[in-house]
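Late entry, written up from scratch paper. The run itself happened at the end of the previous shift, but nothing got recorded in the book at the time, so transcribing now.
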Amino acid sequence: MSIQWKPPEQRLSPHAVNLWRISAIIWNTAGLVILAVLLILDSIYGWKTWIGWILWGLQGFRCSMQCGIYSCNPCGYTDIGITM
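Output as recorded:
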């Protein structure tokens, strides 16, 4: 059984796309600032080791998700194949 999708009848407004991009930039910047502040506080006050590991893990996950979302392409993959 296959699902039949009908094509969209309306187009997205270019203003909606710009709004989504600006919103994503704001949220990503806020997340970066919050994690940076928490990492600085961890360094200053010497919190338990596992808290620092969790914060660094969250930062790494956040960066890897941004790489996937914004296609920063660190491995050299392209849509038509792999470049060396």
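The mean pLDDT is 80.
(Scratch paper discarded after transcription.)
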